[in-house]
Amino acid sequence: MGILVRYSLLGLLVFTTACAGTLPPAPPAVSSPAPVAAPGFDFARDTFAFPNEIRARHPDTPDLYANYCFVLARAVRQFFLFARFDPAQPKLDEAGYVERVRHVAAEAPWHPARALDDRVVIPGYAGLRDFSGAEEAAVKTGLGGRFWTLVRPTNWRVTFPVTPSHQETVASEIVADLDQGRLVQLLVTNWPTPELNHTVIAFAYRPMETVVEFTVWDPNDPAAPGVITFERPTRRFVATRLYDTQPGPIRAFRMYYGWLL
Predict the structure, then answer these.
(1) Can you tell me the mean pLDDT for 205-220?
(2) Per-residue pLDDT at 151 exceeds 90
(3) How far, in Å, CA of 154 to CA of 152, rounded?
(4) Model's pTM, two decimal places?
(5) Which of 23, 62, 93, 224 has the lowest CB atom count within 10 Å?
(6) pLDDT tier at 181, thresholds 50, 70, 90
(7) Are 11 and 197 spatial neighbours (Cβ–Cβ below 8 Å)?
(8) Is residue 99 part of a domain?
């Protein structure tokens, strides 16, 4: 899981402020619309092959790659926006790949996507999944540490209550971003339950009569997508299918869409 945030940051309470319109209208009850995905994103190609480990499940494992969920989720967006894979080019050594990953990870994830010719080229692989599976050590080294992602001020939002209208705004902003081809990093929590203080990437949505289903990539579970549901009548998010999480109400916040937020 992501870090369990236990402390409030006094004097700082930041909420999303960008207005993104309203949720898509509910389709007729008889319909079952296909998901609307961020254009160009492929779960099987554009996500990491290795997981963020859960420390509680491996208490005696040294050098565990745990509590890196924020790093990995942010990096999925950074690779999607700023990297280009070219399997026809010859492969690099480990040091060469570390340097390329560092260039990608240095980009601010709220910046617009770079033109293809202006992206960091990752030679020898067709996508992030293949690359991270074969060059796991280089990728982890290039992504760097987790400290600044864990102490980011907006992580402390998990300690504050939110209104239904706030959560409805978040849901509408996710839809608007996905419609414009932007992946959405979400901070999700069911605090004060000591279970879920975590981050995922929303990459598709399905509007239905009473809910909007958001399909997410979960750093803890690289094998299959998860689902977070927004309930229209109650205006709340529910953890429908998240790794190692009991289904139930949660709160959701957008992350890394500005230098502070």
Answers:
(1) 96
(2) no
(3) 6
(4) 0.86
(5) 62
(6) very high
(7) no
(8) yes
